[in-house]
Specification:
Chain lengths: 561, 561
């Protein structure tokens, strides 16, 4: 095999070589040095507009200026931040590779509690879902007695909906028709009869893709007419990243940490009124159950939010991907759609509402399949056509992910052969998650300087941490957020990877981190134990230094000049 | 089940109801009518910024102004056009549904020759690929004697690369490491030893996603500093759609129809120099083999293009998704990477080149899996970090699509059990495609008023059609492009769905359509026969009308006043 070092360096053909000179001459380029031309060794770079010649980097093999540099990079891309896979996680990858290479650390593995990636943390796939997708992928298996009849029936139905009965065909841009119909039936059942029209269902590449598509539609205007989108703080950073990418105004409304991260309607109004001064608020994003905050919204709160959106004519984006992840006995998931319906026809026929769901969360945790759907209510029909047009440029969501979504919305029924195993697996996942939610909250709250709201739902704890002033100073000196310093030290001392609260947004002067509750109960107990030790050590370290430093100051002060 | 019509209409709680009044009062809203308040029946809409009240649509259930309308929609989204799934295809869907409902037409089925969707046209999946993906989806099958050992070995390797050994885990944003390594090895082998570094490989959600990501990085500036991107005309409309979405300048360079759609370097320079006046050209897109044009570029032409990109410091985006689809005996696929390498180190170490590939084309046609990769050469390392950050917001490409890509780059080897069947299937698909390419070109060229360049590669014919002036007039009167009228009539009279050339771009005054060569040889023969009949009828109809209309004019002129 050839290697770079074996490359015979060839110089570029001279501008007047037979290969190029004709071309350049015909195009009006000068191929002979003239008054405007400064000859330099090696290559010359033409600035064609002026038909003069600038000198390039010169010698063969030497680097020269690039077309795409940090200076020329899209400023919107530059502005994007996404902490869930940010610097801490990149550092965790480095440490992991070091460990694999045999480098000794005070820990033997990196535990990635940074991302809601259930299978990576050992959660087992739901058998029925994987059977259906495998049957769709390789329909020869439909002849195999090893697969249950209900899984085969699902797979046959999905394949009938695919061009050429193959998962390898593009689906319609909105997704496979019969899967969209199953989604609509599922929503109707979930919402106890509130009607759902499959023409309002769009399958997506995970929920992120749907959220991004809706935001794309919304963003327009300049100056004080620029689109603003209301997002919770703390938020899942997809929202802020998408708004940065689209150059829309982020309108932050703060969740009430003192009140279990509840959404306070007055705060919503404050944020809205203040934003109105300099932009055009057009949409309101809500994450329920909350990410990273884990709260489950009350029906009353949802009513207030919808009323507010109605009054202010805001499109509501309800991120409901954790709708199956509710753990507290005194909480219940209320869909925005159902609450809107119950508020009466004036609301139900007017408020523009888009609800998002995903295969990645719930009890399936199928993140890698990139499946999801959105239900779009009361959208202007012409705008819906524009949405379909926009989606069609990307052709279609991945069809295996659509098939996975189909299983979630059309699971085995009581009379079917796979029902018992399906329910057992589903309950087991959700029961263990509920157990881990309690465990996490309890242990975190047992640590002095950590305070964690109940993890009512979703997959995360977002505890508030006390960071001593000395540590804050050090972080400032190192140009990082104080909770970034905390998380970095946690990672480097224990191998535990969590995400600083600053990546999600938080009230000025408060510090948090987000950790998933996904590791196995045993591992999670160990993790929380190590975290507790670390936190105490951290407090001690920075208080000690402070004490030492103060006493040093005192000593210095007592010494004679 | 509840239905909309069963809904008890409830009016919205009055603004001074216990539910809301407190909230609104605290927020500074007036809940009692005052001087600024005009009371109207039904609902009032607050304009909170001014704390005055405007009247809403009034009565419960009545529609009122929406937040998201055609007027407020993103102008970039509005500007997007994507003919491959445009009006003709939407119309085809309508007709298809009518046929399903038993409505009689002069044809019994709609033949969708609009999109490169091989499986939908009956192409069978490659067994080995589907076996590997099914094994990854449902690893219990690894125990089954029905699967060959080489497929199991591939699946085990892929699963080892996945978190928790599950296809359901998020992969790294760039894709699964071992698959990226296989891609790099594949490229090195394809390019006869030219080195490929897997750190430069990014797995993508089809090629479209990769192309979009690179364009996102590139777009910046305002006025004459706005990023321009050079695209071929005719082009695959993803490019124009993406540039519209990103609000970048389209710099069109015309392929030379008289010369088998060759890329003419002088035309490239003309387009560049002219664009330089009003924008900042930053990148050059090439599709080779061509879509929709089917040409395969010569090595000399690629050298010239790369030299041009070098001179003008343009990032080269090489869309090489049809690299396995070359049919003409006198053509050969040359990768931009290999040609760049052979031009010498000065080029190879400087030109920023991104090459795209996909699972959707070639001999696999796995469109639904949305798999692909890009290889990124000479990109600024900091910009690469920004690319990874951008990709990470979408978390990862679909992992089943990554697994499908793995099979393409790591197919069965000669000594392996699946080799014989794999080669048989692969050759069969490619041989039949080559046969259909010739068939299409021959039949089209036998029709008076149609002229088709050789289909050297890819999956499409893009014939030039003569449209009589009378038809052009009618199209203008109906506010549509003449070839849109042609394609619409073709669809409505024969059920054949092709895409007007105007959706891809074409020289002013010329007309084309794009059709795929994907239907089975039998179906394709029938399709081309019907197309021929239609075309002759179309010519006759519009010449006759013209003749009739002329003779009517003559008669009228001859009548006494």
């Amino acid at each position: 095999m050839l290697r770079l070092r074996d490359l015979v360096q060839r110089s570029v053909p001279p501008r007047n070589s037979p290969l190029y000179s004709g071309i350049w001459q015909r195009a009006g380029y000068k191929t002979q040095p003239g008054p405007q031309v400064t000859e330099q060794p090696g290559l010359a770079r033409f600035s064609t507009a002026e038909a003069t010649v600038q000198t390039g980097a010169g010698h063969p093999g030497r680097m020269r200026e690039k077309s795409l540099t940090m200076a020329s990079l899209s400023p919107q891309v530059k502005a994007v931040e996404y902490a869930v896979r940010g610097p801490i996680v990149i550092r965790a990858g480095d440490i992991e590779r070091r460990l694999q290479q045999g480098v000794k650390e005070s820990f033997t593995e990196v535990i990635k509690a940074n991302i809601g990636d259930a299978h990576a943390m050992g959660q087992q796939p739901i058998t029925f879902l994987r059977q259906v997708v495998a049957l769709c992928c390789y329909p020869e298996l439909l002849q195999s007695p090893a697969f249950p009849e209900d899984a085969k029936q699902r797979a046959r139905r999905i394949l009938q909906g695919c061009g050429g009965q193959s998962l390898g065909s593009y689906s319609a841009s909105q997704g496979v028709d019969c899967i969209r119909q199953h989604v609509a039936e599922y929503i109707t059942e979930r919402d106890q009869g509130v009607p759902s029209d499959w023409n309002n269902i769009y399958l997506t590449t995970g929920a992120s893709d749907g959220i991004m598509s809706i935001l794309k539609l919304l963003v327009s205007g300049e100056g004080s007419g620029r689109t603003g989108v209301m997002i919770p703080i703390p938020q899942y950073p997809l929202y802020s990243a998408a708004l940065s990418e689209l150059d829309a105004v982020h309108i932050n409304y703060y969740l009430d940490e003192e009140n279990c991260w509840a959404l306070d309607i007055e705060e919503l109004q404050r944020a809205y009124l203040s934003a109105k001064q300099h932009c055009q608020p057009r949409a309101l994003c809500i994450i329920n159950p909350g990410n990273p905050t884990g709260q489950v919204q009350s029906k009353k709160c949802i009513e207030e939010v919808l009323h507010f959106a109605y009054e202010e004519n805001l499109l509501v984006m309800a991120d409901e991907v954790y709708q199956d992840n509710v753990y507290s006995a005194d909480c219940q998931f209320h869909s925005f759609k159902k609450v809107l319906y119950e508020m009466g026809l004036e609301y139900f026929s007017n408020v523009e509402l888009v609800s998002f769901h995903s295969t990645s969360k719930g009890y399936t945790g199928e993140c890698g399949f990139r499946g999801g759907y959105m239900e779009v209510l009361n959208m202007d029909p012409q705008v819906k056509d524009q949405l379909v047009k926009l989606l069609s440029v990307r052709l279609c969501p991945p069809v295996p992910g659509q098939a996975a979504m189909d299983v979630i919305v059309n699971p085995p029924r009581e009379h079917e052969p796979s029902y018992a195993q399906f329910i057992k697996e589903k309950s087991s996942v959700l029961d263990v998650l509920a157990q881990k939610a309690r465990l996490t909250e309890q242990i975190l709250n047992s640590v002095p300087g950590i305070k964690c709201n109940p993890v009512q739902g979703a997959m995360y704890a977002f505890p508030r941490i006390f960071i001593p002033p000395r540590a804050i100073q050090e972080a400032k000196a190192r140009s990082m957020a104080p909770d970034m310093l905390y998380c970095l030290k946690l990672l480097e001392e224990t191998g535990i990877c969590v995400v600083p609260g600053s990546g999600f947004g938080q009230k000025e002067g408060t510090y948090h981190f987000r950790m998933t509750i996904l590791p196995s109960p045993e591992k999670l107990t160990v993790l929380l134990g190590k975290l507790k030790e670390f936190h105490l050590r951290f407090l001690e370290e920075y208080s000690q230094e402070e004490a030492q430093s103060s006493s040093r100051h005192r000593e210095e002060a007592q010494q004679p000049d």
